[in-house]
Amino acid sequence: MLSLDTIVAPATPPGEGGVGIVRLSGPRAVDFLGTTFRGNTTITRMESHRLYYGKLFNSDEERVDEVLAVIMRAPRSYTGEDVVEIHCHGGTQILRSVLDLFLKAGARMAGPGEFTQRAFLNGRLDLAQAEAVIGVIKARSERASRVALDQLDGHLSQKIYKFSEQLKQSLALLEAHIDFPDDEVGALDLPGLLAPLRKISLQVDTLVGSFDVGRVLREGVNVLILGRPNVGKSSLMNAILGESRAIVNEIAGTTRDTLEEQLVLAGFPVRLVDAAGVRDTDDPVEQEGVRRAREKAAVADLVLMVVDGSCPLTGQDILALELCRPDNTLVVVNKSDQAQNCDLERLVGFPCRVSVSAKYSLGLDDLSEAILGLLKGGAASSEGEEGVVVTERRHRDALLLTKAALKELLASAEDSAPLECLAMDLREALSALGLITGETTPDEILDQIFSQFCVGK
Questions:
Q1: What secondary structure letter does DSSP report for 312?
Q2: How confident is the model over 56-91, as pLDDT tens digits?
């Protein structure tokens, strides 16, 4: 619900920095600035969206800090309300003192995401755009940032509104034929009514398919390096990272636990995991490492199954392969700088392969290209029309509800069901689309969404 109080919070993260920002929003934001700010220009003459130099004073007329202040008058502000920002020095104590000034004046401390929630409630953003704000903040790669910015610009929302408008037109036509006899509105052209709905159903299906890419961009992907001991797993990890991160030694079982590193690969945030070598062993510590490797293999998005290309496959290689699924496994044939004696015909069930020399960093471009192909999983064809990508599970679920309602409608039309049944299916599809942009989203879901934001945004 809209609130009549004025909220305040730091807009910059905790810690020390050159500049800190305190933000206010609400009907008394400008008044609160007027009680504390002293500059060459009076508050009433300060222009909107322009920075002014001055000093802040407390109720005892003691100087608190030198600052720059800006007023962003409604409705041309982030929240749609009067917004004030104080740009002060970024010390922890200074920020606390500035914040206390406005709390004592009567402002209320903002809750998580309350500024963005007010922007949504005031119609500045729809819900999909509001969720994109946190996507921009938490983006872990340039590509993820671009997708979030596109959503913030309304690319996804525009598609949803376009779908909704067509569904509303179809529903209005159906309801006209339900409420009035044919001699008043004419005979219903059912094939003509269904044609655009079939097209929308296909477009919704494309958007649903884009979630495979969107999930990876938003959440990142787990890539596990797996194999028996001494095939070069740790060397491969070092080669991919471009630094000596994992210990490399000829002694089998050097890696006894999982080692994880973060990197960005072709725009995708990746968590690279080097697992203990998989083999039968009596060493309890190594056994625990193997057990953890098995667990990681079960949940990994992609497995780099490393084999030694210079020698035949062993029983330990087969043991490691048994932990892998062909659909998410890339076989990396290591030691390509040596004579090749690996009997690759035994890997017939694992068609995705690439040869490298981790020691000399050979074939890494081919490896990156192969990894990218598997990570994208057909991203070029999975991205929605005009490059729209669905990144939120909530959006995917709502689109699935829309698809199911449209499927039911088309099936009912084939069975010559009453027009009332078709209208009910259309209403369900519209309601599902409204969950994405916020028209039909329950309050408890709204609270859950905005609670994920940081205070001050």
A1: -
A2: 999 899 999 999 999 999 999 999 999 999 999 999
Cβ–Cβ under 8 Å, residues 408 and 432? no
Asked if residue 444 belongs to a domain, the reply is no
Domain of 297: which CATH number?
3.40.50.300
Alpha-carbon distance of 42 to 34, in angstroms, equals 8
Q: Which residues, 6 or more positions from 42, have their beta carbon under 8 angstroms from its beta carbon?
A: none
φ and ψ of 63, to 5 deg: -70, 135
Tokens standing for residue 99: 């914040």
Q: What is the pLDDT of residue 381?
A: 39
Task: Quote the tokens at residue 268.
Answer: 């995708």
Query: What is d(CA 424, CA 167) in angstroms, rounded to the nearest whole number?
Result: 12
> Which residue range is the domain that position 138 belongs to?
130-210+385-437
Q: In this structure, are 181 and 257 located in the same domain?
A: no
Residue 357 DSSP class = B
Q: Is 7 helix (H, G, I), strand (E, B) or coil?
A: strand
Give which of 186, 143, 135 is closest to 395, Cα–Cα. Answer: 135
Shared domain check, 318 and 206: no
Q: Which residue do the tokens 């193997």 mark?
A: 290
159, 74: one domain: no
What is the Rg, in whole angstroms, of the alpha carbon atoms belonging to the chain? 29
Report helix, strand or coil for 62. coil
Spatial distance between the Cα atoms of 446 and 439, rounded to a whole number of angstroms: 11
SS3 call for 401 = helix
Q: What is the DSSP string of 178-222?
A: HHS-HHHH----HHHHHHHHHHHHHHHHHHHHTHHHHHHHHH-EE
- DSSP lists the bridge partners of residue 333 as 307, 355
* pLDDT score for 58: 92
Amino acid at 327: D
